[in-house]
């Protein structure tokens, strides 16, 4: 949710911290702050409501003194406890101690009462401020910074990642991880920390990921990690293959548009090295895959947001093509409903970031049962879900910076199609059929490219939606989750209220909403359900609703009064969900641009949700 950056160096770390925050802005962005230790061994605190650029302006107006700022922590906040305001922004300070925090300290009220009684004055409504005061309180009782942090975290219930500095011990920075991600970045004579390695790519590509319950100390000459029992622990050093520039916007006005246009390449990357001569290679799932997949009798999928929509599409495929029973749950519901998880279950999580708290907890819950195996479909190679799953199937979409997910979704679909074919082969899919499907997967990039050429048409169409208050999306079969995804895109970035329904449900309620003010957007490829969709659409027209139909160019839909048909390339049914998602992404994008919203960072949302 929030983003943390920290650094210890022999130079002023402020620019590194601010650049790190910029790169983490996707995690949350209602306020930001930096604390460094200045030359007089005092904390220099700068905080600002709004975006990181506002913090950078505040820092430029009042920079730390020359020769100072060799240790510091920084934070970009997405409000949980307390409104977005400077007093609630991090870092939180208690005399010499400054703390940044991601997550929630659930017993903060009890600690607040205790610290207030001990004479500490609270300036914010946040749960984080208790951490600063408690650590300072323990230092006042004679503990050094590390012991104080160690003892403080023993008192916290909840999930957190913490970075702590003290002006009286300016040579080291303390980190603690429980439930929220944190990594250490290794430089030469300098050491860094961040919620996500992306923040540190301009300064290093060597990372150490903290495990659950770890406490770490970083210094200019290295680092030390202690496990939950306080014993020194070794964690693997990983070299990141991501490059610092891959995340740049290039000629595009927004990351979202760039990422939409990257989809042909991203889809090809998902397939690369995974198919050969009309055959899906099982080996790319790792050495254990064959043995694990052999035990699979059913599939359970858990994911959130856009990733859950990918799971809903996959359910149709897994049941229809692989003939394996498949259930899909929103991860946030799954973990709390005491689900029956039978032996032989293949547990699939889907997550762009690999850090979504609900998805991670769903996996952890499933792992307590006798599942056959866990697979994560993920875009973040060094993430928690990747580390905790038996098998990780990386989508290779490249960094996705826009909060509204685009290429992550279509590449998740591609990865899920590969898993479907592997399962289907074990259930008797013929080599000939497999070859047919593989050929259609290989054609997806080119078809998506064709749809992207319709960008101008969609831009024009967007003008018709900007004054609408509501929109209805309809689809059947795999196009139902595609419609859900189209509605989600429109609402998250244009703030137009949008709902999606399975087309057959129209007359069971939503039809009551249809009048000349309600645009109805239908995704209707030429599949076996086409005729049914056509009659649903008649029902809309009969009530004066304006129809926008995305249909196969050969489907026989005609433009007419109140009906706009956008012809889509003819493709195999398997890849239709990837293709029909594209115009819905572009439509939402252009509506948002015309409405002047913050396309890449829509209000109230965050790219990576690491709290419940
Ligand atoms: C947030 C993002 C969505 C994303 C969802 C799940 O809400 O804004 O775009 O679909 O989290 O994230 P994940 O990283 O698990 O796919």
Features:
single chain; 612 residues; alpha/beta; Glutamine Phosphoribosylpyrophosphate, subunit 1, domain 1; Rossmann fold; 3 domains; seven-stranded antiparallel sheet; 18 helices; globular; binds 6-O-phosphono-alpha-D-glucopyranose
Structure, explained:
It is a single chain. By secondary structure, this protein is α/β, with parallel strands linked by helices. The protein contains 18 helices and 27 strands. The strands form 5 sheets. The chain has an 8-stranded antiparallel β-sheet with strand order 3-2-4-1-10-9-11-15, with helices on one face. The protein has a 7-stranded antiparallel β-sheet with strand order 5-6-7-8-12-13-14. A 5-stranded parallel β-sheet has the order 19-18-20-21-22, with helices on both faces. Strand 20 (345-351), helix 11 and strand 21 form a beta-alpha-beta unit. Helix 7 (263-271) runs parallel beside helix 13. The chain is globular and about 80 Å long. 6-O-phosphono-alpha-D-glucopyranose (G6P) is lined by residues 304-307, 351-353, 356, 359, 403, 405, 605, 607-609. One of its GO terms (biological process) is carbohydrate metabolic process. Residues 2-221 form the Glutamine amidotransferase type-2 domain. Its EC number is 2.6.1.16. It is found in: Cytoplasm.
The CATH first-level class of the largest domain comes to: Alpha Beta
Proportion of helical residues: 25-40%
Read across the widest sheet, the strand sequence of neighbours is 3-2-4-1-10-9-11-15
Number of domains: 3
Content-based structural category: alpha/beta
Our measurement of the CA-to-CA distance between the termini, rounded to an integer number of angstroms, reads: 10 Å
